[in-house]
Design goal:
Elements (H helix, E strand, L loop, with lengths): L2 E2 L5 E2 L22 E6 L5 E5 L12 H13 L8 E3 L2 H7 L15 E3 H11 L2 H12 L2 H14 L22 H14 L11 E4 L2 E4 L11 E9 L3 E8 L6 E8 L2 H17 L1 E7 L6 E4 L7 E5 L4 E6 L6 E7 L12 E9 L2 E10 L8 H14 L3
Antiparallel strand pairs: 1-2, 3-4, 3-11, 5-6, 7-8, 9-10, 10-11, 12-15, 13-14, 14-18, 16-17, 17-18
Length: about 375
Amino acid sequence: MRVLGWGLPGLFFFLFLLTGAARAQVDFDTQAPYAILMDYESGAVLFQKNADAQIAPASMAKLMTVAVVLDMVERGALDLDDEFFITEHAWRTGGAPSGGSTMFAELGSSVSVDNLLHSVIVQSGNDAAIALAEGIAGSEAAFASIMNEFALDIGLENSHFTNPSGLPDEDMYVTARDLAQLARYIIREFPDYYPVFSVESFEWNGIAQSNRNNLLGMGIGIDGLKTGHTEAAGYGIVVSTEEGGRRLVGVLHGLESSSARTEEARKFMTWGARSFERIPAFAEGAIVGQAKVYGGNIAEVGLVGEGAIDIYLPRGNRRCLSAEIAYQAPILPPVNQGQRLAQLRILCNDQIIQMAPLYAAESVEEGGLTRRATDALFELIFGWL
């Protein structure tokens, strides 16, 4: 047991599922200082490197802009045919005079939401992102507030946005983990619009520009999502593939050149697609384990995955498996069904090779006086064990 710092004492609870003697060879690494590889369906993490460090998002912040806009379209608050005005601020800050990635929209023109989105996704148009923000919220700052509220709503725990384009701002940050979760959200919630991420080029104002994701068309199943670069942040990418029979989402950031980004992302996603074998572990809704609830109307709550949980094991290492469930104790009522409570960690000879979030299988209310008194006495004698 390991004590965690969390106000009241926290403990790791371990559930060992499988044991063996073979040693795993998980020797892959990447030049990127920040990275994560995630299974799309379950959210299981297959590889991570400084995945929770705060980093400047660069143009990958535009994924949040796209998510906010598409959510409004889905809810009927916005139409793809609606047109927004290209203000002087949008033109000067993100357009042709800026020297950055741009749609080359004309000052004073009106552009449809659909075309602005195409530019943001394909061309990484800063002017298009600003035009969307101003058209929806009146200003970049007001739109950033919407971005931050939306980020919290979809479970991004460590991100803060200050503008819709990703132009440098010391107060704006994300994590590789949050970017991967954002990509999963976009793919899952907007399947009809997601193919735009694989559009190879887009033309506006007589100027055709290729998709900045040059992994498209390499024959490795890449179909999105977004690149980013600033001098301070380096080169990064959020990328997804269905190669190998399942969808993966990867994030790499902090690389020194565009060519390094392309090569590292190619190796990263190819390795993820081909180097693991799939072992079914828990069906959708199956109880993975139990977590103690102190003072609840029931003593323990079942834990389930986000859909089915499959183990992706480096090939040739089936005999090394063990697993643990980790959560911060004490868990206090009320607990809502579907509330994230714990994490399943798959290990191979004590090396974590995969992680998956676990959620409450049912709701737990506060228990009666007898239950609360019993748990309080237990805590007094034994601590939170």
